[in-house]
Design brief:
With 316 residues, the protein is α/β, with parallel strands linked by helices. It has two domains: 231 residues, P-loop containing nucleotide triphosphate hydrolases (Rossmann fold, 3-Layer(aba) Sandwich), CATH 3.40.50.300; 59 residues, Lrp/AsnC effector binding domain/regulation of amino acid metabolism (RAM) domain (Alpha-Beta Plaits), CATH 3.30.70.920. Helix content is 31%, strand content 31%. The chain has eleven helices and 16 strands. Strands 8-9-10-5-11-12 form a six-stranded mixed sheet, sandwiched between helices. A hairpin with a 6-residue loop joins strand 1 and strand 2. The protein is globular. 32% of the residues are buried. The mean pLDDT is 87.
């Protein structure tokens, strides 16, 4: 008898109980110890078909090392990685031809033009036609005639995106895919990922941008100090986020009185009070209604700050 489990319906945090789907990507006990606490240690997680899976963590946490194992660039010292049931090291050539990959650091043949590089990749994958290349070039406003060595970081990132998506793969591994892109192109990339999500693609996406992950992913795995700290739904991570609000009042006296109302105040500077809120904002709104508030803002928090809130202090 098949085991029953929760499966994704395609909407974030929406589940049905049914027959367990096949895992497209599986990591079991993956370890690579570089010494002095650096590396990855006993990582285990899986990604289901059609799932957009966020892989998050501070710089140096082990995200890229994990992805390099999945791509078959590194041989596991301990543990295993499999994609579609194939060993990522032993079957790396077959796996690489049939997935889309954006590396964390772009490396090209600088003497090539963008067009020449894309043609090279198409031949490597044995593509019989240009696939989605022109559509993607138009979407990201990329001139493929430019020499790669003359391209900016953002332009090179666009070449990486076109390379990853042009053969319309079912699986994509994206390591910091919007690095170097301006806000408009970041938005277009998120739109592309959402379209691929609707088409049932399976995507692993490493990112530092919480908004990017929040808009696109079903679940996230968070890695810290080379170890898997948690695997959770995006909504659970969002609910755990402690939000900061900066309240500006008419005078310093008003700010001082406001700060004494029993809210979680983290700072007072002249006529501005910084308040932290988790989950329920009703008390803050109630207090603001009694004071001469002139402005309220919610500064963006870094993903690292969210991690610290999520785990509490310096937990490893």
């Amino acid at each position: 008898m098949n085991d029953s489990c929760l499966i994704y319906t395609g909407e974030r945090s929406s589940f049905l109980r049914g027959e367990c789907p096949v895992n497209i990507c599986e990591i079991q006990g993956l370890t690579r110890d570089y010494g002095k606490g650096r590396g990855i240690f006993d990582l285990s997680f899986s990604i289901q078909q059609g799932e957009i899976f966020g892989f998050l963590g501070p710089n140096g946490a082990g995200k890229t090392t994990t992805i390099r194992h999945l791509m078959g660039f590194l041989k596991p010292v301990k543990g295993s990685c499999r994609i579609k049931g194939m060993d990522c090291w032993k079957n790396r050539a077959d796996i690489q031809k049939n997935l889309g990959y954006i590396p964390g650091e772009m490396a090209f043949f600088d003497d090539m033009t963008g067009a020449e590089f894309l043609s090279f990749m198409a031949k490597y994958r044995k593509m019989k036609a240009s696939g989605r290349k022109q559509e993607l070039l138009d979407r990201f406003e990329l001139d493929e005639r430019v020499k790669l060595k003359k391209m900016s970081k953002g332009m090179k990132q666009k070449v990486g995106i076109v390379t990853a998506f042009m053969h319309d793969p079912d699986i994509l591994i994206l390591d910091e895919p919007t690095s170097g892109l301006d806000p408009l192109m970041q938005s277009r990339f998120i739109e592309l990922v959402l379209e691929e999500k609707a088409r049932g693609k399976t995507i692993l996406m490493s990112s530092h941008m919480f908004e990017e992950v929040e808009r696109t992913c079903h679940r996230v795995a968070i890695i810290r100090n080379g170890r898997l700290a948690a695997t959770d739904s995006v909504d659970a991570l969002k609910a755990a986020q402690v939000k900061k609000y900066v309240i500006t009042l008419e005078s310093e006296d008003s700010a001082s009185a406001f700060a004494g109302e029993g809210l979680q105040v983290s700072a007072v500077s002249q006529n501005r009070v910084t308040v932290t809120v988790q989950n329920d904002i009703k008390e803050l709104i109630s207090v603001m209604n009694r004071y001469p508030v002139t402005n309220i803002s919610a500064p963006n928090q870094s993903l690292e700050e969210i991690f610290m809130q999520y785990y509490g202090g310096d937990r490893s």
